[in-house]
Amino acid sequence: MKEEALNSLLLRTKINKNEMLKIASIVTQKKKRLGELAKNFEKDPSVELSLNYLLLGREVQRLERVKRIINREKHKEIENRWILDGKAESAEDIAGFRKITKKYYDVFPSLSFTSREVPIEYYSHVQAVEECGLMEIGSSLIESRKGSLYYVRKKDVLHLLASGMMKIVENKK
After folding, report:
1. Dihedrals φ, ψ of 91, to 5°?
2. Is residue 131 classed as helix, strand or coil in its secondary structure?
3. Domain boundaries defined on the chain
4. pLDDT, tens digit, for every residue of 31-88?
5. Whole-number pLDDT of residue 117
6. What is the mean pLDDT of residues 5-9?
7. Cα separation values, 71 from 36, 76, 97, Å
8. d(C-alpha 63, C-alpha 87), whole Å
9. d(CA 130, CA 110)
10. How far is CA 136 from CA 99, 102, 152, in A?
């Protein structure tokens, strides 16, 4: 099942407090295992160990995103009333909303409460000047070919831009 479909399913399903605690416990256990793998990798830097570390790290990141999504969606209705109408049901809702949104937006400092648009300046059209091999773009692997055009986050291809393997294609207006 693709991650987007799983996230959609999670958002439609009521998650109780015990399930959230279980997810938090799993994240803690997996982070501990990541630390053990890192120590083992220093002793024996094998491909198998590095793949295990990479996959486990991605799983931990995914579970942390799921936790953030669930917390965020729980308070979405209250947030929308607060943002759109300036109304809240109680002082407790306001305090809870401020605490959660501050914690959430601290992870993404460029986002604001008033703008729900994607920050377009972080994305760019790029062209592969030469074969770049496989690129990891978000959660996908893309094989770049010479002359191909891509619309990607700049930070995902910054190293390719710096090396001259890709170039930014300017929009002509």
Report:
1. -65, -30
2. coil
3. 3-107, 121-168
4. 998 888 888 877 777 777 777 888 888 889 988 888 888 777 777 766 677 667 766 6
5. 65
6. 58
7. 29, 9, 11
8. 32
9. 33
10. 34, 30, 11
- Map residue 123 onto helix, strand or coil: strand
**Phi-psi category of residue 88: left, alpha or beta, with phi > 0 → left and psi -120 to 50 → alpha:** beta
Buried b (16+ CB within 10 A) or exposed e, 146-172: eeeebebeeebbeebeeeebbeeeeee
Pick the CATH number of 121-168 from 3.30.428.10, 3.50.50.60, 3.30.460.10, 3.40.5.60: 3.40.5.60
Q: What is the pLDDT of residues 130-159, one digit of tens each?
A: 888 877 777 778 888 899 998 888 888 888
Nearest to 163 by CA among 140, 135, 125, 130: 130
Tokens representing 2 are: 């693709």
Token representation of residue 105 = 């937006």
Cα(14)–Cα(104) distance, integer angstroms = 21
